[in-house]
């Protein structure tokens, strides 16, 4: 069995978490509970997931190109 090291093995969790946080941010921003500190907290959680998502996409593209 061959496994690829690094980010691709957690790709599904990253995508699901990113979608959930972005959806929750969008819903909460439309309510009266939204504040600047809540926005900063969501951005703090979303940015690392977004970077992982970009890294996973880049890895998949290089895998397809090199194959």
How large is the count of helical segments? 2
Main sheet record: none
Strand content: under 5%
Structural class: mainly alpha
Tertiary shape: elongated
Give the SSE string: HH
Low-confidence stretches: none
Give the N-terminus to C-terminus distance in angstroms: 18 Å
What is the number of strand segments? 0
The tally of structural domains comes to 1
Supply Rg.
15 Å
Give the rounded overall mean pLDDT: 86
Name the helicity range.
Answer: over 70%
Provide an overview of this structure.
This protein has 67 residues and is an all-alpha fold. It has one domain (12-25, 34-66). Helix content is 75%, strand content 0%. The protein contains two helices and no strands. The protein has helices at residues 11-29, 36-66. Helix 1 packs antiparallel against helix 2.
List the helices and strands and how they pair.
Blueprint: H1 11-29, H2 36-66
Helix pairs in contact: 1-2
Describe the structure concisely.
75% of the residues lie in helices and 0% in strands.
Keyphrases for this structure?
elongated, 2 helices, 67 residues, mainly alpha
